[in-house]
Amino acid sequence: MPMRKGVISLKNSCLRNVSRKMDSLWCADYTRNFVDQEIRCLYVIGPFEHLTSDLITELIDTLLEMKRLKRNHLDLLFHDYLEKLDISTCRMVADNDEVARHIGLRCQKLKELNINLCKRMSKKVLCLLVEGLSNIVSLIMSNTNCSDRVLVVIAQTCNKIRHLNVQNTLVTDTGVLSLSTGESKCLGLQSLDVSRCKVTNTGVEAVLKSLPDLQWVTYEGICDVIGELLIRDGQASGQQMCRLKKLTAQGCKRDNIQAALMCCPHLTTVCLDNIDGCMEPLCGLERLTCLEIYDNRQNVFESSVAPVLEKIGTQLHTLVLHCDTNFTVIGLCCPNLISLCCYDSVSVMNDFQQKQLKSQNMLEKAPFSHLQILKFTRTHDDWSDSEVMPEGLVIVLSYCKQVKSLELKRVHGLTDDVFFQVFTVNKFTETESMLFDSCSITDVSVRLLLHQESALKSLLLLNCPDITVKNYNSYKKVIAMSNFNLKIEYW
After folding, report:
1. Order of strands, edge to edge, in the sheet holding 112-114?
2. Please, what is the average pLDDT of the chain?
3. How far apart are the C-alpha atoms of 354 and 109, rounded to whole Å?
4. pLDDT at position 238, please?
5. Whole-model pTM?
6. Which pLDDT score, from 0 to 100, does residue 183 have?
7. What confidence tens digit (pLDDT) does each residue in 234-273 have?
8. 247 partner at 20 to 30 Å CA-CA among 36, 54, 71, 326?
9. Diameter of the chain measured on Cα atoms
């Protein structure tokens, strides 16, 4: 059975009590005398003025959990002590210009700010926001209206910034170049994400040459940038690029990918959409721990991926494959994997059943014994009665006894019989989160999980045709009566 709810700590009890009385007590006077009278205040001294930054963050999280957070609550919660703020989790009440202004005015000691997906904050107000963030270290502005002007203000103001994410914004070379000019105060920048922006190779080349501490750059064409620099400047550029720890290549020339891999020996993360010809330079990366492959060609795993895993699989902790996959090969070659994410096509699924690899050799190596995150998604959504469960996936599920998070999407072959087969070997006692999307399990398998001792805290059952609303209501009743610390969702 999942763990039962215990007695909450005194701190959590206080936070929940404060959350319940936010409107009736803590915010009542402010709401009645200011908000209702449409009086706008730049600064507010209220009941939470002397709470620590961590406590304010926990109170916001508690309000969100209890679905009680309102716009006027933030007026009293934003103050000068705040060091960390994540607005992306409360966009319904916080994604507007007024909140952005208040953050810039009141929270000038912020070190970490995340406004991902806050698309209702205007460009002008984003500039005012960053003007007040002179102490910021990490700033996430992905999927917002961030523009070149905002980056110019960041370059002029944020002299302590180390991590900047402007993914999928309106930023162009003009904004990126402002970070690398002589007047920029961002020379200590260590990571920069400009993927899916309007930035070109020219802008990325400038920051690579001008920012000496830059180690993590996320940009689709960075291999072409490095390749062009090596051709033009030779060994001098190679020495500059060797500090990079992440390489992302999408649509880059094969020669440039090879050159980039060879001149960056300290890479820990590599994302490629074409692995042809990259085996030798990849095998030379002694610090590589994360490998992502995006290649939808048939048989690419056998021809290109497997030989690389045979060479460097033991050092990998994270493996992401958007291609045909062979779990048994992965299990043999990558015994230290912590995270495995596979996105496969139906045309290759039956290739998993390679009996020669499911042998005593497989048992001796204890594959997937360190795996904590497993995600598998089929890239099609057509139901087929004749579809069977891939033998390789059964092997993974049977051996990953330490997995904390499990996600299976569109695995139509996952029936009760298959689940029982796996369950006899692996009880999933350490698993905290499970998601089954478009799978063929029924009420029987779910009840097996509910009656098994485990650490399960979250169970999502999505688009599973053999599980009904009546079943879902019965699960909620069991969870409530048994006082399980388990959140279950169904649709």
Report:
1. 84-86, 112-114, 138-140, 163-165, 191-193, 216-218
2. 89
3. 58
4. 66
5. 0.89
6. 79
7. 766 667 788 999 999 888 888 999 999 999 999 999 999 8
8. 326
9. 76
Read off the amino acid at residue 238: G
Sheet holding 487-490, edge to edge: 246-249, 269-272, 290-294, 318-322, 339-344, 373-378, 405-409, 433-437, 458-462, 487-490
- Token digits for 260? 């980039």
Q: How far apart are CA 412 and CA 328, in angstroms?
A: 20
Query: Does residue 273 or residue 474 have the better pLDDT?
Result: 474
Question: Mind listing the pLDDT tens digit for each residue in 100-141?
Answer: 999 999 999 999 999 999 999 999 999 999 999 999 999 999
Terminal Cα-to-Cα distance of the chain (whole angstroms): 23
